[in-house]
TrEMBL record:
Superkingdom field: Eukaryota
Organism this protein belongs to: Exidia glandulosa HHB12029
Protein name listed in UniProt: Galactose-binding like protein
Lineage start: Eukaryota, Fungi, Dikarya, Basidiomycota, Agaricomycotina
């Protein structure tokens, strides 16, 4: 059976970020001592990403979830030298997947989570939580950041 992907950007209403109020000026979050950014999300403009921006956080307790109908989902993010870690859980399962967003240099459009073989007849909820142990300062004095770009939901070509 042929499949197709529906892509949702980081600002799509299908994606619920917690806390939902973004830091108004992402430049403030370059300063790791700025407590305004701790435990919050912000938007960063990064050319070459879907819609030219990503959601980012280095905050303890930050989460997002996306609920969808489909046979699978792929989450795309940005990896970089300041990359942290996060944990994905599908449909409240006990088993989770931890992803490392670290790379030696900037890497766009990286698959940070993928799951297929899901039941098409039920909605699915993917939950992400920033890995609190990532909050430490890295060797270059930066906080460890996770950045999300977009979400690809797979479904049969005849299902919209």
């Amino acid at each position: 059976m042929a499949t197709q992907d529906t892509q949702f950007g980081d600002s799509d209403s299908h994606v619920l970020f917690t806390p939902k109020d973004l830091v108004p000026n992402a430049d403030h979050c370059k300063n790791i001592s700025n407590h305004e950014c701790t435990g919050r999300w912000w938007q960063e403009g990064i050319p070459g990403t879907y819609a030219g921006s990503v959601k980012a956080t280095w905050g303890r307790g930050t989460t997002f979830e996306i609920t969808f109908y489909g046979s699978g989902i792929t989450v795309l993010g940005v990896k970089n030298s300041d990359g942290g870690k996060g944990t994905f859980t599908m449909d409240g399962e006990a088993q989770s997947t931890t992803t490392d967003f670290h790379a030696d240099s900037l890497k766009l459009n990286q698959t940070v989570y993928n799951r297929d073989g899901l039941d098409l007849s039920n909605p699915h909820t993917l939950h992400f939580r920033y890995f609190d142990a990532s909050f430490k300062k890295s060797s270059d004095g930066q906080r460890s950041v996770v950045r999300f770009d977009s979400f690809l939901v797979q479904h049969p070509a005849d299902v919209q």
